[in-house]
Amino acid sequence: MQDKKKNIGHLFDNIAASYDTLNHLLSLNIDKSWRKKSAGMLLPCDKLLDVAIGTADLAMEIMRQKKASEIQGVDLSAEMMKIGEEKVRKAGYADKIKFELGNAQEMRYADNSFDAVTCAYGVRNFSDLDKGLSEFYRTLKPGGQMLILEFSYPTNPIVRFFYNIFFTYILPLVGRLISKDKSAYSYLNRSVKEFIWGEDMVRKIESIGFSEVKYRPLTFGITTIYTATK
Fold first, then answer.
1. pLDDT tens, 60-71?
2. Burial grade of 191 (CB within 10 A; 0-12, 13-18, 19 or more)
3. pTM value > 0.70
4. 3-state secondary structure at position 103
5. Pairing of the two strands 223-229 and 140-151
6. Helix (H, G, I), strand (E, B) or coil at 145
7. Is the distance from CB of 136 to CB of 51 less than 8 angstroms?
8. CA–CA gap between residue 140 and residue 48 (Å, rounded)
9. Where are the beta strands (DSSP E) in 17-139?
10. 150, β-bridge pairs
11. Other beta carbons less than 10 A from residue 211's beta carbon
């Protein structure tokens, strides 16, 4: 897993062309509502940093809801961002959403640079979660808001049963057939199952120095929104 995480940019480069299609297909388009709810929980701000911006779905939803005046995106996958840049241009946000190739665990931005930091489905791919969260904290202005949208593990035994079948068999198979990548969606399956969630994630965020840490499970706990303040 650690070797995969060290080459995560390359992994997402390989599946970039089919990433959006698979996201919407495999979630039955529910992933769109998750991003809408996430953006809706943000307070309006000027400068926002979107870590692991990828194909820019969250960033564009934030703009649609007028929750930020400008967004700086950073990601390790150049191919994902190429798709994101095209989507942003077509949506008319090219002057408000910017992209930069970079490592979320070693960002070049100055301390206290942003009013808000967001990250959708990126933190579980960090090779060093503490370092990544510390960078979120460092680049945020005092009083700034952080929002993380990430997969989690359902607690209901019935939901968990079907969830395990989906993530163990269906997701890797469909992902492999559509993306033509034999390993990417098997990795994504493992990365979800082996990542912390719920109260454990809250304690991890608090250990970095964040306050007012809260979490909101969505769709039977399949995904979770975490919010915090610097």
1. 999 999 999 999
2. middle
3. yes
4. coil
5. antiparallel
6. strand
7. yes
8. 9
9. 45-51, 68-75, 97-101, 114-120
10. 224
11. 9
Task: Determine which helix (DSSP H) or strand (DSSP E) holds 75, and give its type and residue range.
Answer: strand 68-75
Token representation of residue 84: 């994101």
In the DSSP assignment, the letter for residue 53 is -
CA 27 centroid distance within chain: 15
Q: Could you tell me the strand order of the sheet in which 97-101 lies?
A: 97-101, 68-75, 45-51, 114-120, 140-151, 223-229, 211-218
Task: Tokens for 119, please give them.
Answer: 């990250």
Give residue-wise pLDDT tens across range 155-212. 899 999 998 898 888 877 887 777 777 666 677 778 888 899 999 999 999 999 999 9
Between CA 30 and CA 166 the distance in angstroms is: 15
Q: Would you call 29 helix, strand, or coil by DSSP?
A: coil
Fill in the DSSP letter of residue 181. -
Residue with tokens 């969505």: 218
For 111-169, the pLDDT digits (tens) are 999 999 999 999 999 999 999 999 999 999 999 999 999 999 898 999 999 988 988 88
Tell which phi-psi region holds residue 209, choosing left (phi > 0), alpha (psi between -120 and 50) or beta: left
In 114-192, which ranges are E strands? 114-120, 140-151
Pairing verdict, β 211-218 and 68-75: unpaired
Residue 61: CB atoms within 10 A of its CB come to 20
Compute φ and ψ for 136, nearest 5 degrees: -60, -45
Separation of alpha carbons 112 and 47, rounded Å: 11
